[in-house]
Structures are given as C-alpha cells and as structure tokens.
Amino acid sequence: MKYYQSRIDRLKGTRLEDVYKKAQLVYTNIKKHTKRQPYIRSAYFKKSKIFFNYFWVHDKQKSRKQRTDRLLYFPCAIDLIKNSKLEPTVKINPNKPSEILYRFAGKTRDNKVFYIQIKEVKRSQRKYLMSIFPEK
Asked: Each residue of 44-81: pLDDT tens digit?
C-alpha cells in the first residue's frame, strides 16, 4: 500500500482536553470558510467536498484513550484529504450497500502511519469523513 507523506506534524499532547482544543482550532479555521456545513476539498475526488458531519459523532463514541490517539492525527488527515491523489482501498459498506467506503493511508512527518476513512453515499454522491485512526 502506498502512503501519502504529510508535511504536517501530529498534534502534541497526551490529555484529551489539550489535544481536543488543538483539533478544534484546526476545525475552526475550516469552519470560517463557509456559512453552512464545514467542508474541505479533496484532490483525489477532483476537488469535491468532504463534509465532517459524521466525524465528530463517531469520535464521541470512542473511549478517552482512543479519542486522544485519533485526534492527534487530525491536521495530518486534513492535509492528506486536501493533497493526496494516491489510490485508496475501496469497498462497499457491508452493512449498507448504498454506501462506498474509501480508506486512505498516510504518514506523518515523523513516519507514524495513520488511516482515514471516507464514506460516499451513492444516491447523493456526498462524501463524509468518518474516521481517523493510527496503525496498530
């Protein structure tokens, strides 16, 4: 599998509160660019919009440790979505055949591997950032 080499460092911190605040600062910068739903444009999907609706809901369902570990990679994931043109792993959602799941792989500046998952709803062609997670 090919990895996108991010030019951005992971967030620093070990406490969820610290990491969450820093991730929210990055997200606030994204939210400032629109009056409606926050989004970023993806290089792989020909500059189509990737929305964040499911990401924060999915994040809240995880344990404190997992949330901290995942949010550390938030700025790197944004960089990956904006700039990566590498081919992701694609599969149909086994629970909902009307959705396609894309999994992109990336490396941080200090060579830590992480993955992001984007969901596309076939009917509307809308894409949503679902999850960010480090390699096990």
From this structure: 999 999 999 999 999 999 999 999 999 999 999 999 99
Question: What DSSP string runs through 99-112?
Answer: EEEEEEEEE-TT--
Domain ranges of the chain: 4-31+39-134
CB 93 within 8 A of CB 99: yes
CA–CA separation, 129 and 71 (whole Å): 13
Cβ–Cβ under 8 Å, residues 77 and 106: yes
∠ CA 91-1-130 to the nearest 5 degrees? 45
Q: Strand, coil or helix: what is 118?
A: strand
Rounded to 5 degrees, φ, ψ at 55 are -60, -50
Helix and strand counts by DSSP (H, E) for the chain: 4, 7
Of all helices (H) and strands (E), which one includes residue 130? strand 127-134
Question: Alpha-carbon dihedral of residues 61, 119, 122, 41, nearest 10 degrees?
Answer: 130
Q: Which two tokens stand for residue 15?
A: 């406490």
